[in-house]
Amino acid sequence: MSTAKRVSRGGKSRPFGAEDRASAMSAAQARRVALAAQGFRDPRHTVPTMRTFARTLRRTAVLQIDSVNVLQRAHFMPLFSRMGPYDTDLLRRAAERRPRRIVEYWAHVAAFMPVELWPHMRHRMEHYRRDGHEWIGLPERRELATSLVAEIDDRGASTARDLDDGLPRSRDHWGWNWSETKRTLEYLFLAGELAVAGRNQHFERLYDLPRRVIPPEHLNAPDPTLQEASVELLRRAALAHGIGTEHDLRDYFRMRSDLVRPALATLVESGELLPVRVEGWGRQAYLHRDAALPRRVHARALLSPFDPVVWERSRTESLFGFRYRIEIYVPESRRVHGYYVLPFLLGERIVGRVDLKADRRSGALRALSAWAEPGAPEETAAELAEELRVLAGWLGLDTVDVRPRGDLAPELAVAVKAQEG
After folding, report:
1. Helical (H) or strand (E) element with 246
2. Is the distance from CB of 246 to CB of 286 less than 8 angstroms?
3. At 276, is the secondary structure helix, strand, or coil?
4. Which of 51, 132, 166, 282 is most buried, judging by how many CB atoms fall within 10 Å of its CB?
5. How many C-alpha atoms does 373 have within 13 Å on its Cβ side?
6. What distance in Å separates the CA atoms of residue 384 and residue 406, rounded to the nearest whole number?
7. Do β-strands 285-288 and 178-179 pair in parallel, antiparallel, or remain unpaired?
8. How sure is the predictor about 136, in pLDDT bands with cuts at 50, 70 and 90?
9. Residue 235, SS3?
10. Residue 277: CA atoms inside 13 Å, Cβ hemisphere, count?
């Protein structure tokens, strides 16, 4: 087996090879591998460009979409965490203008994925076409699905509201008030019979025919076999994670276990994935042969609850010793840290968390609570204050307001005040 060299900035090359199969990695080494794989060693550009965006997307592989907008939409935040302040039109251009670089699909959950993955999702589309989705089921009336596709063919990209004819609505899932039209459109989207051309100002999907959304070289690409598609998705998950357990790799694209195991065996057999032991993990880990193992990582970032670094909570605990639960759906009286809490990454550790809200009416970024992790360095408050200032500027907010809740809040308020002075 050949070895692959990766160079860590400020250090010597670190080869991975057959000897790593029998070796153990420390938790700190695994953490640095994961952060490097996710792009936290890439230099930030003064003005991020589409090339910067493309590099970052190669790191994250997908951008999870969520409708919560108390701070910023979920898919914009991982880009900010890695690129710094950027023009959000970069993402819109990549998703909505030719040549499209990304497209929405149920890749992790609802997410932007590289458009070239469309053929590799056809088996998933066929599954949804045949069996429906657990939240959506199958269309109640197939003639409605056929008529909706025909209407979109005639009128172009449309929202459910554009097409809704007042059909009965239901409140039987998570408070969604979906009409039969919306439910059928979502089924057609999952089944690959419709694609998403973009979003309107109300964050509603614009459904369109795939031939008007997906570039022909990807739309008309030959169907990969189920095994080939599974290997490619697992490969991209391994590149994005750098190192992970079978569960970690499976979760990235929400793959079925029966598809992951043969794909994993293929990648191990080819030498692309190297089985290693990670101290304290208790499960077999797999290191991508092209992963970098830097001596150190100097990161500073606020991580969205939907960031790939923290979205799988058990992995977050294994990598950082950081227990994280999103409390959006928890009644306010039972929340421990707050509604929309972002972990704060400093260096190569998560050193705190802060509950943030963009008060656009008053022009303030509000830190509703701030908490330090055990052993957080003394510069945590100052570094967090600076990151909040940068975030506020990116969001077009004038001030940072720190509320007196949480053990880090008093020191953070002083640091924010000092920056204003």
Report:
1. helix 246-252
2. yes
3. strand
4. 132
5. 21
6. 14
7. unpaired
8. confident
9. helix
10. 7
Predicted confidence at residue 103, as pLDDT, reads 98
Please classify residue 82 by burial: count the beta carbons closer than 10 Å to its beta carbon, then call 0-12 exposed, 13-18 middle and 19+ buried. buried
CA atoms within 13 A on the CB side of 46: 0
Per the CB < 8 A criterion, the answer to whether 355 and 339 are in contact is yes
Q: Look at residue 203 and give its three-state secondary structure.
A: coil
- Judge whether residue 267 has pLDDT over 50: yes
C-alpha 212/C-alpha 157 separation (Å) is 9
Six-digit token string for 231: 């290997």
Q: Where is pLDDT greater, at 35 or 14?
A: 35
Distance CA 261, CA 284 (A): 13
Closest CA to 352 of 338, 363, 362: 338
Burial of residue 127 (CB within 10 Å: 0-12, 13-18, 19+) is middle
Residue in the block written with tokens 């935040």: 77
Q: Is 313 exposed, middle or buried (0-12, 13-18, 19+ CB in 10 A)?
A: middle
Q: Quick check: pTM over 0.85? A: yes
Beta carbons of 102 and 114 less than 8 angstroms apart: yes
DSSP 212: G
Q: Take residue 121 and report the two structure tokens written for it.
A: 């999702």
Kind and range of the H or E run holding 28: helix 27-37
Q: What gap in Å lies between CA 291 and CA 235, rounded to an integer?
A: 12
Measured CA to CA, the distance from residue 185 to residue 28 in angstroms comes to 46
Q: How far apart are the C-alpha atoms of 403 and 420, rounded to whole Å?
A: 16
Phi, psi angles (nearest 5°) of residue 400: -115, 125
**Gap between the Cα atoms of 392 and 89, Å rounded:** 18
* Bridge partners for 359 per DSSP: 364
Q: Shortest CA distance to 278 belongs to which of 286, 288, 290?
A: 286
How far the first Cα of the chain sits from its last, in Å, is 59
Instruction: Specify whether the CB–CB gap between 93 and 103 falls below 8 A.
Output: no
Tokens 């973009």: give the residue.
Answer: 198
Q: What tokens appear for 291 in the block?
A: 């992963």
- Contact status, residue 214 vs residue 100, Cβ threshold 8 Å: yes
- Which residues pair with residue 354 across a beta bridge? 342, 370
Can you give the length of the chain in residues?
421
